Amino acid sequence: MESSRSPRSGRRHSLLRAAAVTLSLATAASLAGCASADTNTRSSSGQSAFKPVTQKEGSRITVWADSTRLPSVQAYEKSHPDVKMKIVTYDGGADGSTYLKSKVQLFDRTGSGWPDVVFGTPTDVTWASEATKPGARPFAAPLDEKLVPRSTLDGFAKGSLTPCEFNDHTYCMRNDIAQVLLWYNKPLMDKWGYKVPTTWQEYEALGKRVAKDHPGYLVGSVGDTNSHESYFWSGQCPAFSLTKPDTLRTDLQDPKCTRMAKLLDNLISAKAVATQGFFSQGFAKNSGSKVLMAYGPSWYGQYLFKAGFKTPAKQIAAAPPLTWKGESTAATGNVGGGVWMVSSHSTNLKASTDLVTWLTTSDENQASAPTYPAYSRAAKAWLANPANRDYFANDVSEPFEQAANEVWTGWSNTRFSDSTAWSSVVLPALTSGKSLTETLPAWQQEIADEARTQGYKVVDQ
């Protein structure tokens, strides 16, 4: 649907569909759909042949946004009446949609129709930074080529622009991130005399103790379509690591994969970690009140505990990401986050880049955004907003900011979703009673097969 001044809301993007979460596996995938992968390996060429098309100062720009980001685009339009805009609502890449790619391929064939600005997923950048056919211009413009100041790009959380970077250039600006951290029920932890864990070893030991002392209470779940991003990505497991732009390393027998699988298997056996997903049907009603801890993204607080489990205010607290005892390097995963791209075909690059910069970096927009901004200064404004902090039992600012700068950049942004193999192979295996450890080879094979269909060379060392 589209309009010039009064766009109507379409289906929202995959990160957050609405202020309330409908608990289902489909919603879990929706909430984290942007997170299929968060990093990539950059080539060493460093050369850009980008030459803008003929510019037409003051020309109208066409903006494609999902329904969640639609109000932000409308707010910019209202506060910048001198900018001529046509706004189109579309799915924004939700649930692995290839709508944008298909449309760009069509526009490349017909020679017209490209939007000036689009909201999408990190996966979209993998194809948008390259030509869809010989002789075509890559859809995304390299923003570091005199379009966005380096000082602005340097203001994003550490590593958050990595999924935007190909061939040593930056092709998008990150809208939001979903850094993984530890959530816990503070009143219950205090009542039972439990200390909040800081290491994975402490987390495992506490989970076993909880299972023994308080049967039925949980410290996590591995049953959602994004659970692997919380655990295996945080554990620095090289399931999706690009060693070259066209070569994927997937080695689930790496010690960093097997130790996480073993830890989770132990907690699953103790019935402290559920194989039923947090977002699966019936979980909220039957077990939502018995989640003592959860290892997951920054949106869990508002959209899982508050909206999903209906946990009362001042009970849920956040702690920094866990580390492995004896290891000094902290790392965590990411379960969400969209991007804004400017089209290389835009005849008004100034207006297009001004819009994208405002959307991603301005306090005016990001302080009231539904999820945690990737731009560090805007994130502080977001954290200062009472709507984003008053629900919690502690000040979440420090753990949120720490986790935002500890997302591991070794889990690569690929041309395919990292959730497909987990959902099609691992989740059914867990349901049938198999362990994660014994399922690792089948998970790796599925990843490798999918990667090869997307043109990657696959290695395991």
Automatic annotation (TrEMBL):
| Keywords tagged on the record | Cell membrane, Lipoprotein, Membrane, Palmitate, Signal
May I ask which residue range the UniProt record assigns to the signal sequence?
1-37
Alphabetized Pfam families for the sequence: SBP_bac_1
Keyword match Ligase: no
- Span-the-membrane segments of this chain are none
Entry keyword Cell inner membrane? no
Name under which the protein is recorded:
ABC transporter substrate-binding protein
Say which species the protein is native to.
Streptomyces phaeochromogenes
